Amino acid sequence: MRYNTLLFDVDDTLLDFQQTEANALSALFAEQGITLTPEIKTSYKALNHHLWQEFEKGRLSREEVTGSRFGLLFQQFGKTVDSRQMEKRYRHYLNQGHDLIPGSLELLKKLHPHAELYIVTNGVSHTQYQRLTDAGMLDYFKDIFVSEAVGAQKPMKEFFDHVFSHIPDLDKKQTVIIGDSLTSDIKGGNMAGIDTIWFNKNKLPEIEEIQPTYRIDSLEELYSLLEIEKD
């Protein structure tokens, strides 16, 4: 086994957040009696991505992101909605989603006897715990670090300092972070002084100033990379 401590991101690394998000939005808009047009869906994804980028940079709090996004979305279309109420209902549907990235659960089962596994995720604690529990993944992890509870987020140094201080006998040379986001997972890991594995399943363009230690297109590649037998 190449590393003894593995830090896993959740969304679009272990769980298919894109599918979960699509299902939650469809259910929310149906409940509200609003047609979820392709234009609205595209606008939401762009706005949501921008807001979470601002969160990563420390310019917005999690509450500001989640409490304002639906209000800001409908402002673009000349409508007024109760943004926080829509967020509450959206969160209800989002909590129910635990769609798996292909091979993720099997991978955790194989890795669990050979290394200590941890979750490092930006987001809402209750949502992440609920989804990991429903996906049958929670028991494979020694601890779960969610930005909401930590009080800092990836890629901030404070987030990783907190994580490292709560992992007994941590050896940075034996630690790696696995995630899909260059700007939070890989940048954060680089700044924290640990190896990084960029899971680029969507073939996104690289960012020159953020270089991962390794790149993979599927979780299947982790078996050979981490030197673990699949069967």
Walk me through this protein's architecture:
- Its EC number is 3.-.-.-.
- Pfam families: HAD_2.
- This protein is an alpha/beta fold.
- It folds into 2 domains: 5-16 and 100-225, HAD superfamily/HAD-like (Rossmann fold, 3-Layer(aba) Sandwich); 17-95, Putative phosphatase, domain 2 (DNA polymerase, domain 1, Orthogonal Bundle).
- Helices cover 47% and strands 12% of the residues.
- The chain is built from 10 helices and 6 strands.
- It has helices at residues 17-32, 38-56, 62-75, 83-95, 104-111, 125-134, 147-150, 157-165, 182-192, 221-225, and strands at residues 5-8, 116-121, 143-146, 175-179, 195-199, 214-216.
- It has a 6-stranded parallel sheet with strand order 3-2-1-4-5-6, sandwiched between helices.
- Helix 2 (38-56) packs antiparallel against helix 3 (62-75) and helix 3 packs across helix 4.
- The protein is globular and about 55 Å long.
- The protein starts with a strand and ends in a 6-residue tail after the last helix.
